[in-house]
Structure formats: C-alpha cells, structure tokens
Batch of 2 targets.
Target 1
Amino acid sequence: MTGRFGDYGGQFVAETLVGPLEELWSTYLEARQDSAFEAELNGLLATFVGRPTPITRLRRLGIEPHGVTIWLKREDLTHTGAHKINNAIGQALLAHRLGKRRIIAETGAGQHGVAVAAACAYLGLDATIYMGRVDAERQLPNLQRMRLLGAEVRLVDQGTATLKDAVNEAIREWITHPDTTHYLLGSVVGPHPFPSIVRDFQSVIGREAREQFLAAAGQLPDAVIACVGGGSNSIGVFSGFLDDPVRLIGVQAAGDGSGSLGRHAAPLLYGEPGVLQGMRTYLLQDDDGQVLLTHSIAPGLDYPGAGPEHSHLKDSGRVEYLTASDDEALDAFQELARSEGIVPALESSHAVAAALRVAPTFARGSQLLVNLSGRGDKDLTSAMAAIGQRKEQTGGAA
Amino acid sequence: MERLEKTFARASERGETVLVAYLTAGYPALAETGPLIEAVCSAGADIIELGVPFSDPLGDGPLIQETTHAALERGVTAAAVLEIVAGARENGVDVPIMLMGYCNPFLRYGLEQLYADAAAAGADGFIVPDLPAHEADDWLAAARTHDLGQVFFSAPGSSPERLRATAERSRGFLYALAANGVTGIREELDPGIDAYLSRVGEATGSTLPVCVGFGISRPRHITALRGRAAGVIVGSALLRAIGDEQTPAGRILAASKLIGELKAACR
C-alpha cells in the first residue's frame, strides 16, 4: 500500500485532511515528472540555499587517539543554518503549484521555522509558525529571526510546550483551513505523503555526500552517522548509502541518561509501535497508550516518535540506533568547537558524540561520515548555561 | 448494531431527529459519569457518545481537550470507560452507547480484545476521529465479529468517490462533520451545509443514517437541520454547561436542561 514502510506509516488523520493529502501526493508526483519544477528547485538550491555544501575532514577529532578519520557533511553551511531549508524550499514550491499562498508549520529548534520563514519571504507566501513556549525560550535567536523574516509565530502552551505540541496545533490549524493552507511539515513524520516527500527533498544530502566522499577519499565511508529526532537529516544522508556496504548509525537523545520515562527522547530504543500525528511508528507511550513526556537538551530531538521509515529501518536491521545523552552532546559541542573551529547545533552534537564513542570500535584508518545537520548559533545561550551549571555541580572540574 | 438500528428506525417513524450527546468519560469525575449518562438519557438523549481520553486529541478544540486532560489526570483508562458502560447497563440505561477515542489507546488495548470487552460491557460501537475508512480493515473485522458499529466521518471537502467509499464501510451511522476544523461551539451553521448534506445523502442512499456534528450547540441549529439528517451530535456545548457548574447536582441539572431544550427541537 502507498505510504507504508513495512508495518509503519499510513494516514491516521481526520477525514477533513484525506482530500488535501491526496491532492498533495498527486501534485508532488506530477511535479517530479516536470523538468521545469526540477530546474526551479535545483536553481533555488544552488543560488538561495547555497548547495552543494562541502564535506570537511576533521584534523584532530577521531584521529587522536583512535586513528579514525571523521568527516562532516556540512549542512550547517546552508542558508538559514540547517538542512531544514532543503525541504522548506521544495515544499514552498509545491505550495505554489497547489495554488496555496498561506503556509503553516511547526518548529522545535526553530531551524525549520526559520527555513520556512525565509523560503516564504523569498517566494512571497504568508507564513504562520507554531512553536512550543519552552522551545521559544531556549531558542530565542530563532524566534527573533522568524519574526524578522515576516512570519507570524504562535506560541503553544499545551502539553510540554515542545515540538509534539507544536505539531498538534499546526495540524488543528490545518484541519480548520485545509482548502487555502499548505502544512509545510518539517520532518519525515506525519501522515503519508509527508514522510516520502520530505525524504525526497532531503535526499540531496546523501547524493552529494556520496559523490563528494568518493571523490575526496577514493572510497565509501565505513559508517554514516546522523542524529534522529523526527529523522529528516538522517534519512536524507542515509538515503545515499542504503544500497552500499556502509554501516548506518542513527543517534537518538538519551536526555539525562537515566533511561527514566520522561527524561529522554529515544522512541526507537525505548518505545513501542503506536499511532500519533497521522502515522504508525515507534512511540514513547505508557501501558494505556498515552503519549509520554520527553526530554532532550536539543529541542529538535525532543519528540516522542520518529519517522515511520526509521521504524522500518530499525526492524529490518539496516540502520543501528544508539543514544547520546545531554552531557555527551555538550561535550561534543565544546570539543568540535575547540579542536576544529566548528560550532554544531546541539542536535548535531549528538551525532558527533556518538561518532566519538563508536570510533574505538572501528579499525584504525576507518573513515566515518557524520551529518552535521545544523549550526549552533541558536544554542549558545542554553548550551553555555548548561555548561556553566555542570561546572557548578562538579565544582569546576568539568 | 441492533440497538443502533432500532433507535434510528423509531426516530424515523416518529419524524424525530436523533440526538447524540457526547460526554467525556471521567469528566469532571469518574463517579459523576454514570449519573450524567442517566440524566441526559432521561432528558431525551437518544445515543450516548462516550469519550475515552487521549493525551493528544487532535480533532478536538479547547473545551474537549481540557476535559480529556482532566480525565487523564484522574487516571481514566479505556478499561475504566468499559466499566462505566457496564455500570450504566446495570442501572437500566438502554440507549446505544458509542465509544469515541483516538487510535492509539485502542490499539494499545488490542483491537480484538477491546471489541470483545466492549460488546460484553454493553457498548454499541466505536467512533475514531483519526481513523479514516481506508485504514480500518482490522477495526472493521473486529466490529463485524462482535456486531458493533464502526462510524466513519465525512468532511465538507470529501470527494463523491470518497463519500461513497466511506459510507460503504460505515456501520451504524455516518458522522458528517458540519465544518472544517476541530470540535467546539459555533454560532452559525456553515452556509454550505445544505449542499454538502445533499452530496452526503447521494453517497449514503437511504440505508445509512447520517448524524451531523461539530459546532451544533443551539436548538435553532437542530431546527435548521430537520429533515436534512437523521441525527445531530452535541458535545462541547454539553461539556460547557457541565463545566460551568460547581456541584455534582448542579451539573446534572444543567446537562438535563440543555439536553431537554435540544431534544425539544428534534421533535
């Protein structure tokens, strides 16, 4: 059946949205066959987004002390600072094709919101963006950017006031205005066809990375590592290597590392299959099927589900899923900045942390590719506060 | 299914509109749900739609969200809701009781077990707002096995093909969403509702009853829909009437008064 990844995916939505989802899918399939659409998208990716992004070989991290070479795919160098813009610009073009001039979106870390606001400003569309109040407080620079770019930002107080609650409110708004509004979903989650469309728009990461890696290193990487919240940057980069003999490693947020309910955001490790926000996927839920609270220092990972394709890749064993904790992410955040001159997003720091942890398990001379999904400017206030707090707790030893 | 069929047949003979009253199970307290069911039935409700709370009720507006949140805080589970149904049957409530809830808690319970337990408790079927007809094979199989209703929705924008496919799969009745959006009180009916209900009627033929819900809150809404639909569904207005009162007795009175007024418009 269309829109399924093994047992996952589907279209568990209000009847009101079935028509708009069908229209979105048929419009997308047409667009993919239309060379003019492809040319316009590629033109915008080159001249607005700044693609291709380079890959960077790290000079110290990994080599010292493990003898492993780590490379980064530099999605942090895109316009607006994260991979989210690849999908935002693609879906904004689709909205044009659908004849819809009003865009709604959800955002967690704010990177998707900024990307949507920028794409809408450039293409002349109206943007309304839902953001949890907690996330807005920890990502203030992005809140300011969205408003500067002309988007209306609606703060959400429901639930934990984070990403899941922002998605709920965006879906409610979409149900209310399905004829005039396009919901520009920011990850490979939600009802069919979003997981497929967003994956396709993000697959540019994997195509570029594979080609660049072969050209630079003369071989494929031994492993590709990426963080997984909803899972769009990881699906984007993994899609380039699914048919290759390359280990693929997705990294979820272990939060405070205790493994306690409500203190992490790792449904692919600790969740069970369920239905939320239009899709069947691994979900953090209690014995009664109520969705559990989550925690991660990285707002973009602070989500109780993951894209249905990830659930399938987990069950099929094609991708290994690990976790990294808040502390490990903060360590990686600092290490990458100090030793390589790159400030990663806290989300991406989870992938870097996992790469450093698995590096000793690879033979010396191995080559690891990490997708650096975004840059860390947005996180400076919250990351520095957390680092300061750790120093206080450990008496300055950290 | 039999209780549902008889309810619609009897209303049709009398020339009445069926009144469906929505209550969130466990709101404002588990002990009050049974008495509220009995009160609204005595006041004229023909069918009870009993909400099973979910943490993320995507199809619901602020009023119902608040009530389901309150019910969850009191620990109300699907099993507790089935006990409420069984208790109502023991107390002589004989109107159909439909369980309304979102997919995940039901899936977690296990569909086959849930439908068996629901039938044993005396429930008459399920209304699942995030389950479109094309995703419902397993649910329909369980509904057929246990002779329960399985209600699907039509939306103002549903295509004729979609309306026909949905009507073909619905068991008991079709829930026609009166408007786009989430549940909540609306002042006026959508001006396009007549044309929309005509399209729905063409798709369902004369065999499947259609109940209209979302925004129905006043007698004049029901009067305007007379002859256009077999039934109407009232939720947020009833919950607001209940929520505005400070005592259990006050809540029973307010619910009975509102249902009495709405039922008068059904006759």
Note: Residues 128 and 152 of chain A are 5 Å apart (CA to CA).
Target 2
Amino acid sequence: MKRRHFLGLLGAAGVSLTTGVSAKAASGADVAGMPNVGGVLFDASRCIGCRKCEAACNKVNDLPQPAKPFDDLTVMDTARRTDAASYTVVNKYQPKPGENPVFRKIQCNHCMEPACASACFVKAFKKTETGAVVYDASVCVGCRYCMVACPFNIPAYEYHKALAPRVMKCTLCHPRLLEGKLPGCVEACPKEALQFGKRRELINIAWDRVTASPDKYVQHVYGEHEMGGTSWLYIAPKPSFSAIGMDEHLGTTSAPELTSGALAAVPAVAGIWPVLLTGIYAISKRKDKIAEDEKKAAVEAAIAKASADAEAKLAEELSKAEVAGKRRIEVEVKKALEAAAKEQEGGEDA
Amino acid sequence: MKNAKRRTGTLLVALALLGAGGLLTLTAGQGAAKDQGDDKLRADILSIDELKQFGPLTQPPVVFLHDKHTAALGKQQKFYQKECGTCHLSTKDGTMFLAYQRDDAPASAETIKNTYHNNCLKCHMDMSAAGQKSGPSDVQCKGCHNGTPDVSSNWQPITVDKRLHFRHAATQEKAENKCGACHHLYDEAAGKTVAAPAPEKVAGACVYCHTASGSTVPGRKPEKIRSLRLAAHGECVTCHRAVAASGGKDVPTGPSTCAGCHGPLDQKAIAETSLKKVPADADLRIKRGQPDFAMIRPAAADKPVIGADGKPVKAYGMPPVPFDHKYHEAKSETCVSCHHAALTSCAAKCHTVPGAKDGGNVTLEAAMHKVEAPQSCAGCHAALQKKPECAGCHAAMKKGVGDKAQCGSCHVVPTDGLDKAVAEFMGRNDKEAAAMAPALAEKLLSGKRQATATFAADDIPETVTIGSLAKDYEPSVLPHRKIVLSMVAGMKDSKLAGAFHATDAAVCQGCHHNSPASKTPPRCGNCHPAVEGTAASPRPALKAAYHNQCMGCHTAMGIDGKVVDKAPGAKPVPKATDCSGCHAEKKK
C-alpha cells in the first residue's frame, strides 16, 4: 500500500470514529436488561475436589479424553487452567497450613456484560437470557481479541487445528438449558456445590448461607458485582477469595463500560486500534484482490482473443487450400483432356 | 512493697556483681529459644514505623530484630555498664521507657527520625570501625529500610494460665505477702502503688488497670497508667533478669528475650515445664473469695430502667440462671476468659440491662448470648463446639441462641417448692438475697443431666440402607447404630454436652435436623426432593442432602481416611472422594 493511501484511510477512520460507536452496544446485554438471567452458584466450602463436574463436562460436550482419567485426583497437585479440550478444571488450594484443602472450579463466568463480546468486532459472542455467553464459530475470524479481553483468562484457542480453529470455552450448556436440563457439571455434582437457578435467586441463597455462618464464610459473594456482575457466583470459606486463586481487585465496572468512556475521548486506546487496523487491513487486502482479479480477466481475454485469431487464420488457410486444390484439379483435368485429345488425333493418323 | 524493694535491692546487688564479673548473660532463661529451629520465623520482629502517625511513610518500615541486638550487645565488653540503657532511657526512679532513646513525651517527626538515624547508624559505624560485626553502616537507605525482609513473625501473645500462675505463686511461697509481689494497688493517700495486702484485695488481672492502650485518671498522680505492654515488659522482664542475676545458674528464672515469652516453641516448652513442675493434685484455683455457685439474673433496679431511646426497658422476664462457678473455673485458663474487663459483676457498670457506654453499649442480654464474643456464655460454648468430636454435628448448625426451646437449658424453670425460693430471691436485692444465691443455684442445678444419653441401643436401627437414588452405584448401607454409639462415646466425659443434650432425641438431631425430635424421625426424602430442578432452592435436593450431611460430618470430625473403629480388621472411614467406599459400584 502506498503511504498516501494509508494516511487517507486513517483520515477516513478518524471521521467514522467521531460519529461515535457505543462500546456498550457490543455486549448486547446489561444487568437490568436481563432480570431473569440464569446462573450458577459455586460454594467452595462444599466442593470436595472429586472432578465429577470435569468428567460430566467432557461427556456432554463431546470433548477429547484427557491424558489422565478423571478419577485420578493427583492432577490437582499442580494448578491448571481451561484449554480447548477442557472447558472446566478444578484446582486445589491450601489456604491454611494443616487444615483441609479448598477446591475451586474454573470455567467461563458468563459475565453480564462480557468483555469477550465487547472486544469482538464480528459479534461472535452474545449474552443470552439463559445466562450463557454463546459463541458463533461461523462468523469468528480467529483474531483472539476475546482471549486478550477476558479478565478471567478463560477463552482458549484450538491452536492445533490447521483448518477453521475455534475459540473454546464453557457454554453453560446453553443447548441443554434450552431443553430444560441442568448444565452437565451442575447435574453431576454430588454435593450441590454447584447450583443452577435464576441469578437473583442465587444471590439471595448465597447471602443467606454466608450470613448464617459468619465465622465460616468470607462475607462476600464473588460475581455479584465483579466486572459488572457475572452469571457464575462464588462463595468461599475464610480467609479470602485470593487464597483460592481468585482476583479480588477486578473492580465492579464491566469491561464495555470501562472502555466506552475512554474510547469516546481518545480514539487511540488499545480497544479500538484492533478494529481500526483490521479495517485498514481488510481494505488494502480488498484492493489487492481487485487488482489481481483484473489481471486475471485481462489474461483470460488475451487468451480468448488469441485463440479466436488462430481459428480465423486456420479457416482462411483452409479456404485458400481449397481454392488451390480446385485449381490443381482443374489443371490436371485440363491436362488430361488435352492428352486425350492428342491421342485421338494420332490414332486416326496411324 | 517490701517485695518490690527487695527486688530493686537484688537488682542492684546483681548489677554490682556483674560489674565485677562482666558476665551478664542476657540469654538467661532462654534455653529453649536456642531451638527456635527456623531462623526465618522470629518472635522478636519490631517494625519501626513510628512516623506513620505523621502521614504516609516515604520509606518501608525498618525490620528490627530485638533478640539479635540484645544478644550481640550482650557480648560487648563494657555492656554491663549500661545494659538496656544502651538503647533505652529511664525515669529517675528507674522505670524504663520502651521507645528507643526517647522518653514517652510526644516528639516531632523530625526528632524521631533523627533519633534513629543518628544513634543507630553511629553505633553501627563505631562497631564497624572497631572491627566488629555490625548492622548496616553505610548511608544507603535500603540497608535498614528493607521493603522485603526475609524474616516473618511467629509472635504469639503470652497467657499466664493457671499453671503458670501457680508456678509464680510458688516462687513467693515464703514471702509474707505473696500476692503483693506482682499484684499492686494504687494508694490514693500515698500517691503511689502499694503491694496488694491480701488475696481478696487483689484487683485481679493486670489488664484491668493496665489496658491495652493505657489510660489516664484525671487528678491522680501520676495521671497515666501504663499500657499492658509497657507494664508487662517493665515488670516481668525486669524481675526475671533480677532473679537471674542474683541467683546464678541454678535458680529457675523466667525468660528475658522476646522469643522466650512470645515464641511458639518456647511457649510450648513453658507449658511442658508447667505440667512437669506443677503437682498433679495441686489446687490451681485462684482464690479471691469467689463463690462456688452463683445466680445470674438481670440486675434488679428500684426505678424502671430507661433505654437509649428514652423509653422504659421491659424486664426480661426470664428465670435466673443458676451457675456452677467452680466448675467453670476449672474449665477456664484464666479469670480474664470471662471477666475480661473487671472482676465486678457484669451487670453492675458495663453490661447494664439497657446497655452502657462503659460496656460498649453491649446489653446484659447480649453480653451473655453474643456468639462472636469469646467471653460470653454462648460464645464460649460455641467455641467448644468446634472440637472435632462436637463439630461433626455442630459445624453445620447455626451457632448461638436462636431456638427458644433451648432457653431452659440455662434459665432453669424452678419446680418442687424451689419456685417460691426463686421468687423470693428475684424480689430482693439485698445482702440476704446474695447469701441465699449459692445454695439456691446448687439446688437448681442438681437436676441437670451430667452426661449425654440417648435411646437404648436396641431401639437404634443397626443399619440404614440408602438406595432411593441408586443408579451408578449400589445402595449404601449406613452403619447407623455404630455411628450413634461412637458419637455418644465421644462426649461421654462432657458435662456441657450432658446439660445441653437435654432429651434422648437431642443426639439424633445432628443428622435428623429440622424434623420433630423423636425415636422415629421422618425420612430425608420427605423434605429433600429426589429430582433436581432448574429453579434454585435453598433446600438441597436429596442427593446433595445425603452427601452434604455424611461428608460434612466426616470432614468436620477429621476422620476422613482414618481408621477410627477399634475392632480388628476395621477399615478406614471412606474419604469424601472415595465413592465406592460408601456404595459399591454397579456392575454393568
């Protein structure tokens, strides 16, 4: 691309930015807008680290079998994170030495205003009324901005796939929920450490449990307000949520809200650059493609023209050849006639 | 006071002797401190961050290791001349200030900063110049202001429990006034403290006067009463060192280092020594003329009591609580365990019926029932419920006083002629009423259960088969009778458990909760639905109800994976994640 063109495009992008893009629009949902949104309450004091939820998730989502079976609990000796082949993992923590370990299930938290959705410029992510943040692989361009945007480091990428790799994360078993079934992990939990229900009802249950045992629980429901609220809610035994590896400093502002104000004032903030640059890239790519197409068409036309000329020439040659042939026959016939006439005269003589 | 004088005398003699010998070992009584094991875990860490009161610190606080400094200074040749005075100033009558090189008068930030910078660095530099090992002597800030120290604190508060009190009293056995050696009173006339003359005159624990932050009594001379920290460090450590100095090697002395009192390992050693030194039959009761039995009742008032909102407070209308004071003394380590601020009646000044400012507006009712307060009846009992043998049932239960049916456990309703005596007691508020209280309390308590009992073994189902949900696993066979009997065995020595498990069905309620107490409680499935729905419910579904109850109890009692059965060939109690330990896997 020529420098002049690039600057021109930048100018054009600047104009389009001043028309104002509401970042909130990308999320497609807000807390007040979904009063009956579904969610899951995870009670870390009830989790025993049996990995039944991991096994159930693997089964209902048809994920590949892991290297070690799900009844092998030694895998929890090292901290794990979710990846393309496991939408959920359970990790083991030891908040107080000498006391029983505490377990935490990790999966997509299904934010009320998801950062992945606001970062996605093709709107591959969408918050739904079931609580699930669903993903549409057919529109995904594989830019992985969602992975960068997620404050909980959840979306994973099918790096090993050469063709059409997808962004993989917990779906909250959205298809099952639509059928009236519970998410796989919730159904499998033997202890009801996981509980599905309407988010607002879960918040009440969580607070009831926390206030009934003030010496046992941290007096906080994680996910009620974190990052603008999440569909997945957590309560945990003392001393703290950070003792079970949870970020306690995320704040209560949702990701789209965090970026929208700043973006309106200063377009050159990280959030918008990807969109802008991708646009520029797409335009320049399109130009190249058009040029190529034109070239191809010219070549085709040239080839077509050449073959037409050749045909005409052939026809001409052929017709020429025909005329020549006729004349030769005529000459031969004339010669033969003349010879025959001579023979007739001589015979009369002899 | 004679004791105090003698102490000062011995101290002076000791110092003179030491002056000649130059052999003061600051590590006296520090035997166990040598076995601290981990040098990175210390009890002597002082954070020098006094400038905090003037605003945010510009440098990280200085991590100062007190024991390390005293040990190093103790090796100095001329150290005996100044001892603690090397770093600390004293008043004219020898009371040491705990601040470094300052008295306790308010000082400016600049003065405090300079005191540390000039004196610390000078000493370090002098020692370094003399070719001795010293602390940082360059002028790099981070040498002392280290934001990331490689040591961490294992400091523990020290409690003078009954055994330690007994040991201290034993050392004063021959003194004409042994209580007065430590316990002093303030004499208004003399304008100074005097040794408490007799046990019943002892004001009680030090903390009653020497509060955590110290206090001021206007008009008194001196007006200030030292904080507990200052008083304890000033008196305890001084006495320990004086005894060590005067007695030589063979005299047992208390610790004089930070770790000696506040290090966890040393505290363990102190407790072990106490067990060894105190005879098994020794009477550990701290006698101060207290009653064996008492009646606890709302303080009777001549005039109607007016609450904070200006309205008259209604009488509680509860029967008084008969209280076995002697028994509770035996179960508590110190008087402070209950009488946390004074030995006087709780209701007299602080926890009045409507609540008073002196008692933090905690009413008498709350003072007795507040679960979070370790000094309240309900709070202490709730803390005892955390013992593994109790926690199986009680960890999941709501703590404190909520169930009205339980009030009678403490507020004994008088019967059989005692009702008249109680009515008379409640109606009076004079010396005669006080005199009749102990006998009345004893009589009211005599009807209480002394130990936990439940139904006869034959009436307890031997096994219970749980199979209504069996799908991937075979039904689980619960050794029901064995569980009940082992739980009862776990509390057979507890009078507290006996008094509160008042009926035979009380023990059953640990599992059969929220259902009417009976020999034949309803099935779990009556309340807990077998099918989980997508609507959230605070009541667990049946699968979770079973698992939470069984696993919760096993975890709280700490018996997961342990062999608790004494029978030969007994198997360990299944771990929570061992599914087939409770129900065999179904063959497919």
Note: Residues 82 and 233 of chain B are 18 Å apart (CA to CA).
